[in-house]
Write a structure and sequence with these properties.
Layout (H helix, E strand, L loop, with lengths): L3 E4 L2 E4 L4 E7 L9 E6 L6 E6 L6 E3 L7 E6 L4 E6 L8 E7 L17 E2 L3 E6 L1
Parallel strand pairs: 2-11
Antiparallel strand pairs: 1-3, 3-8, 4-5, 4-9, 5-6, 7-8, 9-10, 9-11
């Protein structure tokens, strides 16, 4: 059984920072490309960032590039999303996602390419 558990969300003022974590305790984490997505009320779930199984490659949505950083610790089986210079439009529920397979340096930006999802963590940015 796959279990992805996000944490680290909360309420922050515009310009502030948050660090999200996603713990995966039941799978071969180091063999899985991972990603972060977000969904605001009334909107589709959208891509935020992705990282290869090696951790050596990352990709970002244009809206968060240079503000957010995705990383992973394979020994701790944990995925991270460091979010800086937060804006009110970053307000959403953030989800981590895992893909069963992928090439060593591949990243995946479509939600349809992921196999497992966490329950989400709320991020609210006040103006």
């Amino acid at each position: 059984q796959v279990q992805l558990i996000e944490s680290g969300g909360g309420l922050v003022q515009a310009g502030g920072s948050l660090r999200l974590s996603c713990a995966d305790s039941l799978r071969a984490f180091s063999s899985s490309p991972m990603g972060w997505f977000r969904q605001a009320p009334g909107k589709e779930r959208e891509f935020v960032a992705a990282i290869s199984l090696s951790g050596g490659q990352a990709s970002y949505a244009n809206s968060v590039n240079s503000r957010f950083t995705i990383s992973r610790d394979n020994a701790r089986k944990t995925l991270y999303l460091q979010m800086n210079a937060l804006k009110p439009e970053d307000t959403a529920v953030y989800y981590c996602a895992a893909r069963l397979t992928g090439a060593y340096s591949a990243t995946f930006q479509s939600k349809d390419e992921y196999d497992y999802w966490g329950q989400g963590t709320q991020v609210t940015v006040s103006s």
